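Q: Please design a sequence for this.
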């Protein structure tokens, strides 16, 4: 069976899931059209829904479907690539989410490994992804490597070398790690046979020098122009300008992340820097105290970022 083609390259923004500030943090899907329009206006051509930034594992299957459907509806207008993360749930639910993603015509599917019965070999990941791929046989499937959260530490070069033709829909990986040696080895498997999206915000410039040119960046929610400028300078070979802009982005990451977990703090930064307010995080993440927002605002002003009033 021939492989399902996957040609998307460049930037994908992992979007926040918008919640109301009520006792259950109910979904606030009215934000999605404005959110998509904002990203499209900044020339962001791809979105990832229900990922780590989007608190996917904190939502029910029904909520994840509703959120995915809201984005599937709006990208018909914005023409953005729609990637949906379906993992982080019991396997029957993962398969249901994969099938649903295909039914709503997602452009690609991203999937975490099994999080309880953790895989410890390439073969175990492959067997799991074969099941996911079978539930969505017409949609490109990517594996989500984020060992800092999953504690699944299978080497991605070994994994990609083992995939072969075992999963007809398999297209590549999201590589959320600062280990660029491993990321580069993964990129070069089979003469760059598989897509590799780097998920680390602070090593974009370094990755470019090693040949990685596609990224899934949370900071591109708040600072899309800056992330795209880093990528453009890298593509043009302007190493000094690229590193200069990367240093600024890294300072923004530090100013944001020093207050708490990445999803907690970046969700506070979003309404400070843009006209999109995705609301609070949901348990088990914690809402940061008001002074975190105030300190973040001052730090952003010191970095000469424009604050949204």
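A: Design:
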């Amino acid at each position: 069976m021939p492989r399902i083609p996957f040609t998307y390259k460049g930037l994908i923004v992992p979007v926040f899931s918008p919640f109301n500030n009520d006792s259950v943090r109910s979904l606030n899907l009215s934000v999605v059209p404005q959110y998509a329009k904002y990203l499209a206006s900044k020339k962001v051509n791809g979105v990832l829904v229900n990922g780590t930034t989007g608190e996917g594992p904190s939502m029910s299957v029904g909520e994840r479907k509703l959120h995915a459907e809201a984005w599937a509806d709006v990208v018909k207008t914005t023409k953005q690539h729609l990637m949906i993360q379906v993992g982080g749930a019991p396997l029957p639910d993962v398969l249901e989410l994969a099938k649903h993603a295909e039914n709503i015509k997602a452009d690609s599917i991203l999937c975490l490994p099994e999080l309880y019965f953790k895989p410890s070999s390439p073969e175990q990941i492959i067997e799991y992804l074969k099941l996911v791929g079978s539930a969505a046989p017409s949609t490109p499937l990517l594996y989500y490597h984020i060992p800092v959260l999953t504690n699944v530490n299978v080497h991605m070069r070994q994994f990609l070398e083992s995939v072969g033709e075992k999963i007809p829909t398999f297209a590549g990986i999201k590589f959320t790690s600062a280990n660029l040696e491993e990321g580069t080895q993964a990129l070069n498997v089979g003469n760059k046979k598989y897509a590799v999206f780097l998920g680390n915000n602070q090593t974009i410039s370094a990755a470019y020098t090693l040949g990685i040119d596609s990224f899934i960046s949370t900071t591109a929610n708040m600072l899309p122009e800056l992330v795209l400028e880093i990528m453009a300078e890298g593509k043009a070979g302007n190493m000094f300008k690229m590193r200069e802009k990367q240093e600024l982005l890294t300072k923004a990451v530090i100013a944001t992340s020093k207050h708490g977990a990445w999803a907690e703090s970046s969700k506070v930064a979003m309404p400070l820097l843009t006209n999109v307010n995705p609301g609070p995080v949901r348990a088990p993440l914690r809402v940061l105290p008001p002074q975190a927002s105030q300190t973040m605002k001052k730090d952003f002003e010191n970095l000469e970022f424009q604050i949204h009033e």
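Q: Thanks. Anything notable?
A: Residues 176 and 199 are 4 Å apart (CA to CA). The longest helix spans residues 239-257.
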